[in-house]
């Protein structure tokens, strides 16, 4: 079994997923997402730390302080997508620092952000960050599969 550790962070607004029910993701809760992620990680032998934080500054602080304890990151930044109190530049700098360490990073989105008028993920393709979105909780599962593949090829 692998001893690779995966950090999954969910940003502001993801503690209550009831607003996604209107988008066709009926009865989706963060607990369900966490359970599915746990099952996927277990099937690959990955250790998982699943977190949610509504405080953007604290979320980035966790990334800065804890990323050395993890081999990969999946992040759903949610509230960072539009108006952010800490700024997109700071978010990008932290994520780029992680990818520069050679750690795989995948940004996930439950919804199709392109359909909602957003024009791109928070990280462009030049950053080395993967992106999976618009597939409900399956976005997370696909991201876990991709992370596992990247870690297996190291």
What would your notes on this structure say?
The structure is a single chain. The chain is globular, with a radius of gyration of 14 Å. The protein is an alpha/beta fold. It starts with a strand and ends with a helix. The longest helix has 15 residues, at 30-44. The protein is 35% helix and 17% strand. α1 packs parallel to α4. It has a 5-stranded parallel β-sheet, sandwiched between helices. The chain contains 4 helices and 5 strands, in the order βαβαβαββα. The protein has a single domain, classed as Dehydroquinase, class II (Rossmann fold).
Oligomer: single chain
Structural class category: alpha/beta
If you consult CATH, what is the topology? Rossmann fold
Return the string of H and E elements: EHEHEHEEH
Largest sheet composition? 5 strands, parallel
Essential attributes:
154 residues, alpha/beta, Rossmann fold, globular
Short summary of the structure?
The chain has 154 residues and is an alpha/beta fold.
Secondary structure: elements and pairs:
Blueprint: E1 5-10, H1 30-44, E2 47-52, H2 56-66, E3 72-76, H3 88-100, E4 105-109, E5 130-133, H4 138-152
Parallel strand pairs: 1-2, 1-3, 3-4, 4-5
Helix pairs in contact: 1-4
């Amino acid at each position: 079994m692998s001893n690779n550790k995966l950090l999954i962070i969910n940003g502001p607004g993801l503690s209550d997923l009831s607003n996604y029910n209107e988008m066709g993701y009926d009865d989706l809760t963060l607990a369900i997402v966490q359970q599915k992620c746990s099952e996927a990680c277990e099937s690959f032998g990955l250790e998982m730390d699943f977190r949610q934080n509504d405080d953007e500054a604290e979320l980035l602080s966790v990334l800065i302080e804890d990323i050395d304890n993890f081999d990969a990151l999946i992040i759903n930044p949610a509230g960072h997508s539009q108006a952010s109190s800490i700024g997109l530049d700071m978010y990008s700098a932290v994520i780029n620092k992680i990818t520069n360490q050679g750690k795989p990073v995948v940004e996930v989105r439950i919804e199709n952000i392109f359909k909602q008028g957003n024009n791109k993920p928070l990280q462009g393709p030049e950053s080395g960050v993967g992106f999976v979105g618009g597939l409900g909780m399956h976005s997370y599962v696909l991201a876990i599969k991709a992370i596992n593949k990247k870690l297996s090829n190291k």
